[in-house]
Amino acid sequence: MSDVPRWLSQIMQEERLPSSFVGNAMGYYVPLAKKIQQWQREKGGVLVVGVNGAQGTGKSTMSKVLATALQEECGCCCAVISIDDIYQTKAVRAELAQQIHPLLATRGVPGTHDTTLGMQVIQDLMAGKLVPVPSFDKASDDRRPESEWTVPSEAVDVILFEGWCIGAVAEPPEALPKAINVLEEKEDADGAWRGFVNERLQSEYVDLFALLDRLVMIKAPDFECVHHWRGEQEDKLRASKASEVGADLSGLMSVEQLERFIMHYERLTRWMFDEMPGRADVLFELSAEHIIESGTGLSS
């Protein structure tokens, strides 16, 4: 790995990534960073790039590599914002669960994010302001206090807005009545929850995603891989938290809890698999081994 840039070796060490990751990074992520630099120059202002990927696809790691490559290889200052970090607080989601539907207590689906906060932060960064970027603690299932948010050190050239449902659009109404898993069948028999989620995608999320200049999708081969990879993420989070003295482990999930949790994401994930690839500016298709098998949209 003598030809691997030092900054990439450092990321791989920090994230405990296998040597096979080099192919993804050097073959696809670094070229994408250079493509993003091109887009930014063409726009002549702050470029907002959406990074979409189902749970466990590696979109957060890719975003970290992209941000570093943009800095080290392209001289661009980049801020990364995760849609996970603008989840509504646990208290707000409890109110949604009481007033609208019990399933809204669980973070994840459209309707459980603070889209107003997300839009404000992105617009402020686009205007050259150095504002705090929100942060969410999944282990405690709540937003961190603003004193723990990160502030960019300088005005940014690129914003990477990453998340599992970034750029998603609403499903056709005729797709909603039929339950697709046990969760929907037993806990959303009348379709009220999934109807609410779809309505949110038709309203406030349209405005949020309208801020995107470009959309990148990293696509899993199927939902079964998503299920497996998300389990690996939880194991990694558990190991990390267990090493912290006095860490709050209350938000970590058992196998059964994780199974139910993933069902919240299934409908929209499957819909994005079908609908999004044809309109993404860049599409990376993963194998079951987490290797990018093909990439489209990088050529001029």
Automatic annotation (TrEMBL):
Keywords: Kinase, Transferase. InterPro entries: P-loop_NTPase. One of its GO terms (molecular function) is kinase activity. This is Kinase. The lineage of its organism: Bacteria, Pseudomonadati, Verrucomicrobiota, Verrucomicrobiia, Verrucomicrobiales.
